[in-house]
Design goal:
Number of domains: 1
GO molecular function: D-arabinose 1-dehydrogenase [NAD(P)+] activity
GO cellular component, one term: cytosol
Strand order of the largest sheet: 1-2-3-6-7-8-9-10
Largest sheet: 8 strands, parallel, barrel
Number of strands: 12
Order of helices and strands: EHEHHEEEHEHEHEHEHHEHEEHH
CATH class: Alpha Beta
Mean pLDDT: 93
Keywords: Oxidoreductase
Strand content: 5-15%
Shape: globular
Helix content: 40-55%
Radius of gyration: 19 Å
CATH architecture: Alpha-Beta Barrel
Low-confidence stretches: none
Structural class: alpha/beta
Distance between the termini: 41 Å
InterPro entries: AKR, NAD(P)_OxRdtase_dom_sf, NADP_OxRdtase_dom
Protein name: NADP-dependent oxidoreductase domain-containing protein
Number of helices: 12
CATH superfamily: NADP-dependent oxidoreductase domain
Length: 362
């Protein structure tokens, strides 16, 4: 099933911009005002996670505020969160923990249902743990607490494997898959798994998160929050990304804008089902405005579009803009060279070694 439709458009606002991984003091940001501004532009779908501390708490308060609820009915919104990941190296996919996490999220958003709940970074746990957590989410879906069940993680091929096994095991598919850093100007590996996700996996919609590769594909490099430099990109990739950004900026273009245009345009071009959704960052009104205007450059209004200011009207790939950018796209990818389509290990060797030691101790 696909939780998105013409009322939601093709864009989701991600909540990681209000996490300590990204910024130093998320609680100082005007979250309610920023969300209201996003809604005024036509954004109706929002994604967060308890792991993006304190994003879920801040967003939950915003979406529970009378200033918002008086203007936007709950039925007009798509609220998505995750479960299973506790910290950078701690996961709990046990059925009681999954249920408790979802119930806590429901309370934080003051709602009696969530539109999508994902298992967070599913590649970090065993297949049995993953299937057990998904079974619990299916049960909560049957209870009416969740409208759609999803899985999220980094490697698209792994997510496709899980999706196929879920369908074979339970006789029903996961509704939504969210992957990140795999449909952008540096890495387009998601293309190779779309057919299997939609086909054998029966997935309703695929979400493309981190179109700027968690801040790597912009001038200035990766963001540093309270938790320090968490980005897994190796030094060589960082250096080439910085070189590409300088080259783009020297031509009077913004690396962030170009990267987002590529991610949105390329996904719209290759996603034959036309269901793919891009998750935008934007922890401030200024960032949201910039990102929305960039998306509107690459996606033109559909035939029945009425309001130019509403992002939901922009659903069709603008072939002229895409073609005009192709020389810049090629220039960036030429500079990236051997790092094009590079994928880091997830989980990495350090995490696996730590888990091995913990098992030996127990």
């Amino acid at each position: 099933m696909n939780p998105f439709n013409s009322k939601t458009g093709r864009v989701v606002l991600g909540g990681a911009g209000w996490s300590r991984q990204i910024v130093t003091d998320p609680t100082s940001k005007p979250v309610l005002e920023t969300i209201l501004h996003a809604l005024s532009l036509g954004i109706r779908a929002f994604d967060t996670s308890p792991y993006y501390d304190p994003s879920e708490i801040l967003l939950g308060a915003a979406f529970s505020d009378p200033a918002l609820t008086s203007l936007y009915p709950r039925s007009d919104l798509i609220l998505m969160t995750k479960c299973g990941r506790i910290t950078s190296n701690k996961f709990d996919y046990s059925p009681p923990a999954i249920r408790a996490s979802v119930l806590r999220s429901l309370a934080r958003f003051s709602t009696n249902y969530l539109d999508v709940v994902f298992t967070h970074d599913v590649e970090f746990v065993s297949r049995a743990e993953a299937l057990g957590a998904i079974k619990t989410l299916f049960e909560m879906k049957d209870e009416g607490l969740i409208r759609h069940v999803g899985i999220s993680g980094y490697p698209p091929a792994f997510l496709a494997d899980i999706a196929v096994e879920v369908k074979e095991t339970f006789g029903r598919p996961v509704d939504v898959v969210q992957t990140y850093c795999h449909m952008n100007i540096q890495n387009t590996s998601l293309k190779q798994s779309l057919g299997r996700l939609y086909g054998d996996g029966g997935v309703g919609v695929v979400l493309n998160a981190s179109p700027l590769c968690m801040g790597l594909l912009r001038k200035g490099g990766v963001p540093i929050g309270e938790l320090g430099d968490f980005h897994p990109a190796p030094r060589g990739l960082r250096e080439k990304a910085a070189e590409a950004a300088e080259w783009v900026e020297s031509r009077g273009e913004s690396m962030a804008s170009l990267s987002l245009r590529f991610a949105v345009g390329e996904f719209a071009r290759v996603d034959e089902k036309g269901f793919g959704m891009t998750i935008l960052g934007g922890g401030s009104i200024g960032e949201i405005d910039e990102n929305v205007e960039t998306v509107k450059q690459m996606l033109k209004k559909g035939e029945d579009g009425k309001e130019d200011g509403d992002l939901r009207e922009h659903t069709k790939l603008n072939e002229e803009i895409y073609k005009a950018d192709e020389a810049l796209f090629k220039g960036v990818r030429d500079i990236l060279g051997e790092w094009v389509d590079y994928t880091w290990e997830s989980p990495d060797a350090a995490f696996l070694e730590e888990q091995k030691k913990l098992k030996e101790q127990n």
